[in-house]
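Input (structure):
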């Protein structure tokens, strides 16, 4: 929301509510820290990938990258997600390649289709972990989001920060977009900066696209081939302008840019009206999982992959490998 990027009269009018939000959230966290409210401790290490602000920081590509890195090292990893945006009321639930994004959420389906990881959804993270461990032998659980879900004990915390927008106007909800104050970053094991300019101690991440994939034929084309004709781009993610700017940065001319709400479901008529059959319609991978059932031949999605320096990769993975190895010795 643009309101959260600047300070205005409305910001100051809402600031007492932000103070109340801070007081409630701090009290709740303190109750968990003092063990007055009980946290669930999983029998395997838990790593949370979260954020301190609302929406669109690049969390999902980090989860995909981490799963792929750990799988390559022989680590048996599972992922839990709330399944935000899905319509299902059946929890906990395993997500598969054929799961409906409309029912279980777009991000869980994307993660499973990209990595083949074991993934369960439920607002109750404990339920998801217990389901995964009853079905699979795992070394580590990754929680996609849930930094503020203190009912789940965690061993490692990563926070993803949008390097361009950073922390907006600096206010907590509802006057700003923050769930916790930036001072919270001093207490986590890693801060990942998505684009922009990283601050001291942050791990810099870029999201790199190479090609577009056709939703109907699954044909892959280099994105340079889309510079020859004007395209239409859509994005139903936390911060749609990031996707549009990425495409334009690659030399792709956009006849139209249409941003939707994060996790918004789509209909055929809604998208078909945006681009004629001879005009490529480009979308994010997260949008594509919601459009498979009615995809058209001129629809393409652009997958992105998280990239880190060798130094950051080593720094991020080492504590995880040590945790897993330590648990392995106990067993």
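Output (sequence):
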């Amino acid at each position: 929301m643009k309101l959260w990027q600047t300070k205005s009269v409305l910001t100051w009018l809402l600031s007492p509510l932000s103070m109340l939000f801070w007081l409630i959230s701090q009290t709740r966290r303190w109750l968990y820290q003092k063990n007055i409210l009980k946290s669930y401790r999983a029998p395997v290490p838990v790593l949370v990938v979260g954020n301190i602000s609302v929406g669109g920081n690049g969390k999902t590509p980090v989860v995909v990258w981490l799963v792929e890195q750990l799988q390559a090292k022989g680590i048996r990893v599972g992922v839990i997600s709330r399944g935000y945006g899905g319509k299902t009321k059946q929890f906990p639930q395993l997500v598969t390649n054929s799961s409906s994004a409309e029912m279980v959420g777009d991000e869980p389906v994307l993660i499973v289709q990209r990595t083949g990881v074991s993934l369960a959804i439920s607002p109750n993270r404990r339920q998801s972990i217990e389901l995964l461990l009853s079905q699979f032998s795992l070394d580590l659980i990754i929680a996609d989001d849930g930094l503020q879900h203190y009912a789940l004990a965690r061993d490692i915390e990563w926070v993803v920060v949008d390097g361009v927008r950073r922390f907006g106007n600096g206010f907590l909800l509802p006057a700003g977009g923050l769930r916790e104050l930036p001072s919270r970053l001093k207490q986590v094991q890693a801060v990942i900066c998505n684009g922009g300019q990283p601050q001291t101690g942050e791990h810099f991440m870029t999201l790199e696209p190479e090609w577009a994939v056709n939703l109907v034929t699954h044909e892959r084309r280099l994105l340079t081939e889309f510079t020859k004709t004007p395209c239409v781009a859509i994005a139903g993610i936390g911060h749609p302008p990031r996707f549009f700017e990425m495409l334009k940065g690659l030399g792709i001319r956009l006849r139209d840019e249409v941003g939707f709400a994060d996790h918004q479901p789509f209909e055929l008529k809604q998208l078909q009206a945006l681009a004629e059959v001879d005009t490529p319609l480009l979308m994010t991978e997260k949008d594509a999982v919601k459009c498979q059932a009615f995809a058209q031949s001129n629809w393409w999605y652009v997958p992105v992959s998280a990239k880190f320096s060798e130094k950051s990769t080593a720094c991020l993975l080492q504590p995880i490998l040590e945790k897993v190895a330590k648990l392995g010795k106990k067993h």
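Notes: The mean pLDDT is 96. Residues 9-33 form the longest helix (25 residues).
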